[in-house]
Amino acid sequence: MFAAGLATGFAVAAGVFTAGSLGARLGFEPSPSYFFGGKMVRAEVVVKDGAGTHDYRLDRGVVRAVSSSSITLRERTGDLVTIPVSGGADVRVNGRSVSISQVRKGSSALVVRDGDQAAGWVRATPRP
């Protein structure tokens, strides 16, 4: 459900970003890939679906530490952020379902949580 909501949000954002002369006013051409692509550090996405309104928080960075209940990322800004991770989180490394303890220091990661709850979604990719 989260993925469908996020995809819908991206699609709506694409329509908004391509309309009008927003790019001219900002000095760059905004697009979902600009905001959510490789330059993204962190984001907040509010989604309303059949279950209600969700305030998703996305954090991206390099894994500095992992425990059974949290992950610490160094974001591109240099900030260190420690995010609690739910025991039932959907954690994947290179698309393969794993436990949080299998996420390795030095990997790139995207962590998603609903508001102040523990993260329920972690995607990591080992860096060469």
Textual characterization of the structure:
- The chain has two domains: 2-39; 55-125, OB fold (Dihydrolipoamide Acetyltransferase, E2P), CATH 2.40.50.320.
- The protein has 128 residues and is of the alpha+beta class.
- 15% of the residues are buried.
- It has helices at 2-18, 22-26, 32-36, and strands at residues 42-49, 52-66, 70-74, 80-93, 96-97, 108-114, 119-125.
- The longest helix is centred in the N-terminal third of the chain and has 17 residues, at 2-18.
- Strand 2 and strand 3 (70-74) form a beta hairpin.
Notable features of this structure?
128 residues; alpha+beta; OB fold (Dihydrolipoamide Acetyltransferase, E2P); 2 domains; five-stranded mixed beta barrel; 7 strands; 21% helix
Ordered list of secondary-structure elements with their pairings:
Blueprint (H helix, E strand, L loop, with lengths): L1 H17 L3 H5 L5 H5 L5 E8 L2 E15 L3 E5 L5 E14 L2 E2 L10 E7 L4 E7 L3
Shape: globular
Tell me the CATH architecture of the largest domain.
Beta Barrel
Helix content: 10-25%
Within the largest sheet, what's the order of strands? 2-3-4-7-6
Q: Any idea what the CATH superfamily of the largest domain is called? A: Copper binding periplasmic protein CusF
> According to CATH, what is the topology of the largest domain?
OB fold (Dihydrolipoamide Acetyltransferase, E2P)
Number of domain units:
2
Largest sheet: 5 strands, mixed, barrel
Strand content: over 45%
- SSE string: HHHEEEEEEE
Number of discrete helical segments: 3
Q: Mean of the pLDDT scores?
A: 84
Global Rg: 16 Å
Measure the end-to-end span.
32 Å
CATH class of the largest domain: Mainly Beta
